[in-house]
Write a structure and sequence with these properties.
Elements: E1 12-22, E2 27-34, E3 36-37, H1 39-50, E4 55-61, E5 77-82, E6 86-89, E7 94-101, E8 112-120, E9 125-137, E10 142-152
Antiparallel strand pairs: 1-2, 1-10, 3-9, 4-5, 4-8, 6-7, 7-10, 8-9
């Protein structure tokens, strides 16, 4: 059995909080959903031990297929952005990364955002995926903040 196969992916719980604001900063939509931690996350842990993999990219998309641990891509990705920071709380074993989608980003075709994913090595490996419910209509009149939290037990 390989090092990657020894990791128990199910021991990590994740949730995604989506906040949508109008241009005046007023909250117009909020939701919290759970994500599936993919088999890619197991590979990420092993790769981190080897120093070869790092979570560095968020993607959002319009796909609506159910998430599974075997997912390798985000359904119909419409926007991606590099992750610039993360915060790990040692007291509660929670790691959080945040994505901000500005009013002038991801507006081509006025997409309805229904999914989000985290990737390693600039999109090489999907490590977590979530469906966003309710969906978020993206336009130049709103911004989106997505906080992705992993709890390690």
């Amino acid at each position: 059995m390989s090092l990657e196969e020894n990791f128990l992916v199910k021991e990590v719980k994740g949730e995604v909080r989506i906040s949508v604001f109008d241009l005046n900063g007023n909250l117009i939509q909020y939701s919290k959903v759970h994500n599936d931690v993919t088999n890619g996350f197991r590979d990420l842990l092993a790769g981190s031990l080897k120093g070869t993999l790092v979570v560095d990219k968020f993607e959002i998309g319009t796909g609506t297929d159910a998430t599974t641990v075997g997912d390798t891509a985000l359904g119909n990705s419409v926007f991606s952005k590099n992750i610039v920071s993360g915060d790990f709380g040692l007291a509660d074993n929670v790691f959080t990364m945040t994505l901000h989608v500005a009013s002038n980003e991801s507006n081509s075709g006025s997409p309805t955002i229904s999914g989000a994913g985290l990737f390693t090595n600039s999109g090489e490996l999907l490590v977590a995926r979530a469906l966003i419910d309710p969906v978020v209509p993206k336009s130049d009149s709103n911004t989106i903040n997505i906080a992705w939290t992993w709890t390690f037990n």
